[in-house]
Amino acid sequence: METFILVFKVLGFGDLCLYPASFEYYAPASLDEAIDLLNKHREEARVLAGGHSLIPMMKLRVLRPAYVIDLNRVKGLKYIEEKGGEIRIGALTTYYDVITSDIVKRRVPILAECASVVADPQVRNWGTIGGSLSHCDPSGDMGSSILALRAKMVAKGSSGERVIESDDWFVGSFQSALKTGEILREIVIPTPKPGSGGAYLKLERKAGDYAIAAVGVQVTLDGSGSCTYAGIGLTAVGPTNLRAKKAEQALVGRKVDDRVIEEAARAATEDCRPTDDPLRGSAEYKRAMVGVLTKRALNKALADAKRSR
Fold first, then answer.
1. Which domains does the chain have, with CATH numbers?
2. Predicted confidence band at 309 (pLDDT cuts at 50, 70, 90)?
3. Interior CA angle at 55 toward 49 and 213, to 5°?
4. How much is the average pLDDT of 74-91?
5. What 8-state DSSP symbol labels residue 49?
6. Which among 27, 19, 26, 72 is positioned nearest to 50, based on CA atoms?
7. Are 199 and 304 in contact (CB under 8 A)?
8. What is d(CA 86, CA 149) in angstroms, rounded to the nearest whole number?
9. Which of 249, 237, 245 is nearest to 287 (CA)?
């Protein structure tokens, strides 16, 4: 998003107050109605959840949808529940809901940590987890935690529902795996086993900013202290949120000591794909910060895992 703002400033429009192009607004009462509208208008329509990504892009005329479909009157899309060994989160659940959820704090605290560093209180009160994941901003915080937890996304369209693995969800910059006419309905997270811990650490220029780099880590230790599960997600260092698979492989099946942590941190720097950025530093700097953040996040996640065994 900030890239577009920078372009406008370079072109001399930095002080111009911009407004969206005209559009037709719908507020359906059900998800089926929303899907019908989306299929009717297809590429001319955009879905509105929290609005903190869509509205700024419309104001900058980066997006000019002819139709906006607001989901906020749709019932049954805002919840956090645990059943059948899974944690289920409705797509309209806000960051604030995630931060304050007892289930999240008890079972997947990495999500609460992640949501707590998203933007500012206004965004956290209105922004939704489903909207963030559907927007697929490579600098979005929530995607990395979702990757670390191996979550699944449940998408609904006119032909029914389909389940999409987190590894398949992030197709490209601002491009999710949603097909035309589909809406994200739910996020499903396997409940971590005893001996699990997580951490999300973010480097930013100032509080509430997009990340220079960020790392989400989720680990599980068995009774002997060996790592049986490792999930590592990276933010703002590639065309999408990335999974650091080499770093994960450096951990699984081993007793994790300082040497192994160093090895995993080095592997994470190889997994990332940063680019030079006039706002947030060089690719070399971001890569180095991925190593530092991975090491710190691993130490924190491992300490939590040892306490929960």
1. 2-70 (3.30.43.10), 80-190 (3.30.465.10), 196-302 (3.30.390.50)
2. confident
3. 85
4. 97
5. S
6. 72
7. yes
8. 11
9. 237
